[in-house]
Amino acid sequence: AQSVTQLGSHVSVSEGALVLLRCNYSSSVPPYLFWYVQYPNQGLQLLLKYTSAATLVKGINGFEAEFKKSETSFHLTKPSAHMSDAAEYFCAVSDNFGNEKLTFGTGTRLTIIP
Amino acid sequence: ETGVTQSPTHLIKTRGQQVTLRCSSQSGHNTVSWYQQALGQGPQFIFQYYREEENGRGNFPPRFSGLQFPNYSSELNVNALELDDSALYLCASSQDANTEAFFGQGTRLTVV
After folding, report:
1. How far apart are CA A63 and CA B89, in angstroms?
2. What are the residues whose beta carbons fall under 8 Å from the beta carbon of B28, sequence distance 6 or more?
3. How are beta strands B64-68 and A3-7 bridged, if at all?
C-alpha cells in the first residue's frame, strides 16, 4: 500500500524566508507524487506533480519540489515566503499517471510571520 | 475557480439520517472522484466514477454509495449517518481517468 508522511503538522516562517515542507513516501511501485494547497474554506489546488520526467519539478506560485529516490522524499520548497502562502499543504501519492485515487498525507499548516 | 461546483456548501443532519451530496463536474470532464476530509486530516479517497461506472473504491463501508449521470454530474449518498461522518466532502473531476483532477470547494457535513 502506498502512503506519504508529512513531517511537521505546523510550520512557521518569516516573510521572505525559505519555505521547506517535508514529505516522505512509501510505495512498492514507481510513485506519482503531488503537492496540493488548501486555503481556508476552499477545495484543493494542485501546486505541482512528479511523474518521472524530471526529478526537480517546478510548480505554480514559485514552489518547487525535488524527487529523491534514495531518501524516498519529495520535499516542497519556495525561496522566499509571501504572506499569501499561508495555507494548508498536502502531499499525495498515486500509482497512476493521473492524480485520481490519491492517498494524502495529514497536511502541514504553513504560517507566515510578518 | 475550477468549474467544479458542489451543493450544498453546508449541511447539518441527525445521526441515523440519510444524506445526498451533489457535484457538477467541469465541462468536458467524464470522471468524478469523491474524498472525505475529516477535521485536521488529509482527504481520503471514497470512490471514483468514470463514464457512469464505478472505477475504484477506497476503504469505506457500503452505506457510502454513489452515482454518476449521463451528463457526468455525480451524487454521493450516505445512509445511516454516524457522528464520525462529519467532514468536508470533496469532489474532483477530470477529463479522463488519467488526467489532472480539479477539486470543488466541498460540502461540509455536520452530523449531530
Report:
1. 27
2. B95
3. unpaired
Q: Map grid coordinates 500500500 to a residue.
A: A1
- B41 neighbourhood in chain A, CB within 8 Å: 106-107
User: What average pLDDT is seen over chain A?
Assistant: 91
**What digits encode the pLDDT tens for the residues B33-57?**
999 999 989 999 999 998 999 988 9
Q: Which residues are within 8 A (CB) of B10 and not within 5 positions of it... i.e. 6 or more apart? A: B107, B108, B110
Residue B4 and residue B106: Cα distance in Å, rounded? 10
* Cα–Cα distances in angstroms (integers) from residue B17 to residues A49, A93, B14, B63, B108, in the given order: 39, 34, 6, 11, 16
| Helix-strand-coil split of chain B, %, nearest 5 | 5, 50, 45
Q: Which of B35, B44, B105 sits opposite A42 (nearest CB)?
A: B105
Q: What is the CA radius of gyration of chain A?
A: 13
Residue of B41, B33, B28, B39 lying closest to B6 (CA atoms): B33
Q: Do B97 and A92 touch (CB under 8 A)?
A: no
**Residues in chain A closer than 8 A to B31 (CB atoms):** 100
CB contacts < 8 A, A to B, total 65
Rounded to an integer, what distance in angstroms lies between the CA atom of residue A98 and that of residue A33?
A: 10
Segments of chain A scoring below 50 in pLDDT = 99
Q: What does A7-70 look like in DSSP terms, one character per residue?
A: E-SEEEEETTSPEEEEEEEE-SS--EEEEEEE-TT--EEEEEEE-SS-SEEE-GGG-EEEEEGG
